[in-house]
Design brief:
Blueprint (H helix, E strand, L loop, with lengths): L9 E5 L4 H12 L3 E6 L7 H4 L7 E4 L5 H9 L5 E4 L6 H6 L1 H21 L6 E5 L24 H20 L3 E6 L1 E3 L9 H10 L5 E2 L6 E2 L1 E3 H13 L10 E4 L5 E2 H12 L7 E2 L15 H7 L7 H17 L27
Helix pairs in contact: 1-8, 3-5, 5-6, 7-9, 7-11, 9-11
């Protein structure tokens, strides 16, 4: 993880209470940046709030889908750079009800890009978090940055669109924007229990069999959140360079792992190999095989992941263990709720 001080800079962070946003805020603060967090809802379990970092950032209550909220965050708070993580990030949620995903991921992205275009003289760097899902299904793997963007399922399409919009704003208006396409990111603070890593950890800590919605053979890149944040901040640091602005970069370990293998590894690390997974094979709309070629990031940015899969999982498991240890009832149902409760920061300041 990069630790060099930033020049005095004010960074707008969307999705700041999510897993990646929370860890990005932590590193930005450590490096001396001022952070402006655009927040719709605040979950007290978010790492941003649990760590106390929420009290070190400027909170703007607002909604990506509302242009006025986004433009106010950019203009009134006079930000110099933007890290755009805000999105609806769950594939199956998008499959069940696509419209909110399109609104958040597509409208939310062009609202932000437009606000940055209007204030381009001040906003010098923009990083948009895309995804390997933007590529859709490809007969040739791993994905390179030259692989066409052709998502077909609703979530995949939303990421393809956000990606294309970002490049359009660079080519049409000269907006300095860089695009990061990551594989599956895992780490402490992921409160979306339907995802395989936090869901498996939760089940095992509760003494329950972990559920696998697919047949267990789907292949994915799994990247530790600290390595992902390192990639995003490298793009932020170098966002005005001609080799970075307007470019997309893949970030991933390049070592695809099957769902069943990662579940079994988590079981080993938790110490519950006796709890065999329940393979339901009910998932729909997900691509079977996805992984990324990150050679461009290595060559241009000198980025490589610093953590092995096992190292990242060990730290992730410890984050959840520590969270449970702080509770009187470590297996309280609120820990495993499927939809996080929310709190308006303006009316109820969160405490750790």
């Amino acid at each position: 993880m990069m630790n060099t001080p930033l020049e005095p800079m004010k960074v707008l962070l969307t999705g700041a209470t999510g897993m990646v946003g929370s860890w990005a805020a932590k590193v930005l603060l450590r490096r001396g940046a001022s952070v402006v967090a655009l927040v719709l809802d605040a979950d007290p379990e978010s790492e941003l709030i649990r760590s106390g970092d929420i009290h070190r950032v400027t909170v703007v209550n607002g909604c990506l889908e509302k242009y006025g909220d986004v433009e106010r965050a950019v203009n009134v708070h006079e930000v110099d750079a933007v890290l755009h993580f805000g999105a609806q990030t769950l594939v199956q949620v998008a499959m069940r009800n696509p419209l909110p995903t399109f609104e958040a991921n597509i409208r939310g992205t062009y609202n932000l890009l437009e606000a940055c275009r209007i204030h381009k003289r001040r906003v010098r760097r923009n990083v948009v978090a895309s995804s390997d899902k933007a590529y859709g299904e490809s007969p040739t793997l791993p994905y390179t940055e030259e692989t066409p963007l052709r998502g077909s399922a609703p979530y995949d399409v939303s990421k393809s669109c956000a990606d294309l919009l970002s490049r359009s704003y660079f080519h049409a208006y000269g907006l300095p924007v860089a695009i990061a396409r990551c594989g599956n990111i895992f780490g402490g603070g992921d409160l979306n229990w339907s995802r395989i890593v936090p869901g498996t950890i939760l089940s095992l800590l509760k003494g329950e069999r972990p559920a696998i919605r697919s047949d267990g053979k789907f292949l994915r890149d799994y990247m530790f959140v600290r390595d992902a944040v390192d990639g995003y901040l490298t793009l932020l640091d170098r966002g005005e360079e001609t080799s970075v602005a307007g470019q997309a970069f893949n970030f991933g370990p390049g070592k695809p792992v099957s769902v069943i293998d990662i579940v079994q590894l988590i079981g080993k690390l938790v110490g519950r190999t006796d709890l065999t997974p329940d393979i339901t094979n009910v998932t729909k709309g997900e691509i079977r095989e996805q992984w990324l070629d990150s050679s461009k990031a290595r060559a241009v940015l000198q980025w490589t992941p610093k953590h092995s899969l096992e190292e990242g999982l060990r730290e992730t498991i410890q984050w959840y263990r520590d969270g449970y240890a702080a509770r009187q009832d470590p297996l309280s149902p609120t820990v495993g709720r499927s939809r996080p409760q929310t709190r308006d920061i303006r009316t109820s300041p969160p405490t750790r």
